[in-house]
């Protein structure tokens, strides 16, 4: 199975996010983000590092676009740093921030690479956090102001827009589990955040429509098949609730304008009205043009009467990545087919898929054969979904290069290019980059 067997207009790309690669955290008028603050707080990042410099992409973007060209991708997914544009979150605009993204987009287009722009990949302006961040509906307003400015500035050249990256992480990982910025551990707060983010998404889609732009807009969700450990009724109940928490809490609002009843009733019993008005979730279902799917793994659960989700995650046998995520390639097919069946028809993009491994440089080479195998199997399973009639329109590998992996700092390497943090952030192609290039060039087959 070769690249040429995928649809001819299929987008093949790689993905990145602003805080993970840009660095230049306080240059050219950029304001502080919640990730700047979080990473600067001792104890929050496992290896004690920050994104202050990261891959220095802010200064090396031309060189990095040359890497994209070298790979032979026809698309690139990146995110915009909101505090570069609005240092205070709203109000005064920082022209230099806009200049950077204007230049980035122009250079991509010059090289024949189609940009997919994510408006929010987690770096909220810190001044908004002082006023409650995503728990405050003023943040929704500020997000719209920011989105409108980007639509106006880049809407003539960017054809693909994503409002939010992984609202599950924005809400639960950051406000219930406290592992990501702003590091809050309160479930009710997380539910408020999810609500406001979903409403902000719907309003941004509506605002985009109002501008009559030529492009398309959607959202990016991290989705996992959730499997019961056994066929027992109890394990199945656990899987249903866990699926509501991980997947349907976001899928149902954006496609159906409501929360999944099975879990809503649980949360209502515990917290009463976590949002002022549940009905306002309807706003989230403004019709999108596509859904972005980030796929990494599946979850296996068993019944746990003590947990509010009646479930606990079970660590099953099998190969795992350096993130300790199970390698489960058939899951990408399962999730794409399911979305199409239950929520479609809707264009789908695999907006992220990839893996972290313990890559080491030996004699100038990084022989990451596990990553090649991982990608190969996931490409194949995506192809099977397409064959089953699922409209998958593109695939973005996470990530172009090793970068700041949030709470793990630089200790996890997801890149196709190795970044030598000891030698001036030099980018070195891993074997997987060479493999991907050959695949894109139709030189090799996936079998
Ligand atoms: S951490 C995460 N990621 C990685 C990140 O680099 C990227 O920015 C994200 O879009 C790779 O892709 C996404 N996702 C969070 C996964 C959930 C982890 C579950 C932890 C449970 C405690």
Description:
The protein has 447 residues and is of the alpha/beta class. Helices cover 40% and strands 15% of the residues. The model has no long low-confidence stretch (mean pLDDT 98). The protein binds ligand NCW. Ligand NCW binds next to helix 8.
List strands and helices in order, with pairings.
Blueprint: E1 11-15, H1 18-21, H2 34-39, H3 57-71, E2 75-79, H4 82-85, H5 95-110, E3 114-120, H6 126-129, H7 137-154, E4 160-165, H8 167-175, H9 187-210, E5 216-222, E6 226-228, H10 233-256, H11 261-271, E7 290-294, E8 299-303, E9 311-313, H12 330-343, E10 347-353, H13 369-387, E11 392-398, E12 417-420, E13 426-429, H14 431-440
Parallel strand pairs: 1-2, 1-11, 2-3, 3-4, 4-5, 5-7, 6-8, 7-10, 10-11
Antiparallel strand pairs: 8-9, 12-13
The structure holds ligand NCW.
Provide key terms for this protein:
three-stranded mixed β-sheet, 14 helices, binds ligand NCW, 13 strands, 447 residues, eight-stranded parallel β-barrel, alpha/beta, globular
